[in-house]
# Entry
Amino acid sequence: MAIANKILEAMERASWIRRMFEEGAHLKKERGEDRVFDFSLGNPCLEPPSAYFQALEDHLRDPRTGKFGYMPNAGYLETRQAIASDLRAKRGVPIGPQHILMTCGAAGGLNIVLKTLLNPGDEVIVLSPFFPEYLFYLDNHGGQPVLVPTCKDFSLDLGAIEKAISMRTQAILLNSPNNPTGRMYDADSLLELGRILGKAYERLGHPVYLVSDEPYGEIVFDSRKLPDLFACYRYTILVNSFSKSLSIPGERLGYVAVHPEMEGAEILVNGLTFCNRILGYVNAPATQQQVIRRISGTHVHPGEYEKRRDLLCKGLQEIGYRFQWPQGAFYLFPESPVPDEIRFVQALMEEGILVVPGSGFGAPGYFRIAFCVGEQVIRNALSGFGRVLEHFR
# Structure
């Protein structure tokens, strides 16, 4: 066999997202761009803010040498200082650059966190629906996923989470606003979750880390504000990315922030820094770090995605689809009108509409629509959504 059996098996069950994206590329060649409506991939449709381009130009014109060399594995000090300053202003905790580590996107951040925290066989609670790559990240580092479904409206099922905590539980992985549902967990639920994890620490004799994956934290709707997990629980590790907030997913820049009041914070950050190196990331991209420090706190306008949400949700609601309105991110997760959502997704594909089956997110019976597309794409696709739903009725 040319490659490992494990990888062959993983490839076979790998992300539906990429599979549908690749199918979309094929259909566009076959039918033409204007007859294919690709809602498969969460690729931001907005351009980065103008301040980003100005900061990039300023950095490239800077005459100083050594701009593209290695730096400390945790990242440039001045970049970490800028991020810490922004977090202090938003979260009101005494976080400093010593609590920040620059990473190769949120994916790189999650991998170094799991590598640092997990012994082989340790359990990590993953809430479903979930981003499919989480299971692969856990497998990378010997972790065992414990899948806990959310409630019907995708809110936290706190009772189920509490029951799932065992002696082997090392962490719970949270994603809010959520991919694929667009759900943002409310402050009261998160405070209660912090209380549950505090009780678990007393019972288990070790902390259960709350790892919060927050790449959509700046994309929230209806004048909402993302609740602060640092205020809920001191064994919290934030993992963030500029991919969505600045529309630069291809630049692979993110960070990990460790709660400054966590017992053992220093050794945890040292472990993260070590794992950043030994996993081969070495350091986050040098140029992007220097750009980010100049525009810390800048992000795309979430109102542009909110307009797309409203256009899509109102259109699908009138047609007869059933779903929870997203509170953030740029995903909608409707119910399939038939139990076999893959069959339904295939029918949509015949109309040139590309969405992703819920099975890929651990939630069969649903499908995901990524509405980070042009408004005209949404308008032109609605009639096809209607025809397919009518057919299955």
